Prior knowledge:
By secondary structure, the protein is α+β, with helices and mostly antiparallel strands. The chain folds into two domains: 2-143, Alpha-Beta Plaits, CATH 3.30.70; 150-276, 2-Layer Sandwich (Alpha-Beta Plaits). Helices cover 24% and strands 30% of the residues. The chain has five helices and 16 strands. The strands form five sheets. Strands 1, 2, 3, 4, 5 and 8 form a six-stranded antiparallel sheet that branches. A four-stranded antiparallel sheet has the order 12-15-9-16, covered by helices on one side. A hairpin with a 4-residue loop joins strand 13 and strand 14 (226-229). The two termini are 23 Å apart.
Amino acid sequence: xxxxxxxxxxxxxxxxxxxxxxxxxxxxxxxxxxxxxxxxxxxxxxxxxxxxxxxxxxxxxxxxxxxxxxxxxxxxxxxxxxxxxxxxxxxxxxxxxxxxxxxxxxxxxxxxxxxxxxxxxxxxxxxxxxxxxxxxxxxxxxxxxxxxxxxxxxxxxxxxxxxxxxxxxxxxxxxxxxxxxxxxxxxxxxxxxxxxxxxxxxxxxxxxxxxxxxxxxxxxxxxxxxxxxxxxxxxxxxxxxxxxxxxxxxxxxxxxxxxxxxxxxxxxxxxxxxxxx
Length: 277
């Protein structure tokens, strides 16, 4: 699997929202449309260029799987977030980074449209804003790889995980290893352009500890004039005796996120290896 990671870091005189996902995605969408739209009417309905428009693909197209996600931690004192692009969307990097630059310098954040002059931009952890000019690194696309295998791990649910079980969102510790593995694997298949495929290996691993709580989160959609629930489970899960295939899928989940609404930054997980080889 190929990917590109774009990271931004800057501080603000205004208080940074506890959950920045809705704010960043909204401002980025406005900036992306400003960057790529070629329709004089500036309307997406029946647009002649919708089948080739990056904004339409990212924000307006229905019943599609998005090949990008936001990544951050809740409650940061500064804006510190990344945007991951996967598969063919990695080739859209110039438009994406231009839109992010426009978001900070011209469009602004919050209802007050606060803009910024000082900020850092990194591409795959390499500084890419030098003397106020964007300089793309030589290699902008990375190939995902796993360096070791861990049998015992702590699985940290860093931002709310929204996952359905028996057609209902999980709100407690009623989550099993197979639920997580299957969710990540199906997400990986969709990113790669494949249909549903059953996980082809034995799911082997024992959950020996769960410290799970439900985190309420909401966002206001100005376009739809509704309040959306983005709550999910957070906490940590200790897993022992993982087989190689399950560990590898969990590592993929670190990259691509887990569950629903990853475009808002939900479903971020981190793996802490306890027994590795």
